Amino acid sequence: MVKIEVKNLNGKKVKTLELADDVFGLAERNDDLIAQVYKAQYNNQRKNTAHTKTRGEVRGSTRKPWKQKGTGRARTGSIRNPIWRSGGTVFGPRKERNYLQKINKKMLRLATKMVLSAKVSAGELVVLESFKESNNKTKKIAQALEKLNLMKDKKLFAFGNKARKFNLATRNLAKSENCNLENLSVFNMLNSKIIITDVDSLEELETKYSQSARISKGEDK
Fold this sequence. Notes:
By secondary structure, the protein is of the alpha/beta class. The chain has 2 domains: 156 residues, Ribosomal protein L4/L1 (Ribosomal Protein L4, Chain: A, 3-Layer(aba) Sandwich); 52 residues, no CATH class. Helices cover 29% and strands 15% of the residues. The chain has 7 helices and 7 strands. Strands 5-4-6-3-1-2-7 form a 7-stranded mixed beta sheet. α5 links the parallel β4 and β5.
């Protein structure tokens, strides 16, 4: 079983938890799979705002600028012609483009567990005793981060249903991002150096991804 320390807001060790190996202790890592899921989640967040107008959408007269013959000029039929200044655009970006990519559920689960396992083995998963100790106060969380030496790192606060209002305490902190466990993704985990959660949230996370066991309640310090 993988073991991890639980700390309080003073930065002191409270106890040790045993985590499920099939979620937090995967030995093998498939970087190609993780990269594929990361790119898909990135593209699924992408908003298609770039849009150019074709000659049919550009505002302007439909009158023929000059007669077809006799002027010595090249023939033309519209001032909205793409080769004219302020004319339409050919092959430009259109807002109808769809960037969404489907992610297989088994691939998503496996990639998520691989990233969680990598974070645990690298010591980049920090478990607090309870988010409730902060009373959702930013000052208390900032003081805790100072004691844990995490102020300078980019952080992801992952909280479960029992701490839904915890984002009130962390939304104004620098270099931090809030995420409910329902929205936890490979993308936001890899974009953060440290993942910070508490025991209750970790239990929810293990229950969601483990096929066998729930989290052990831990040992004495």
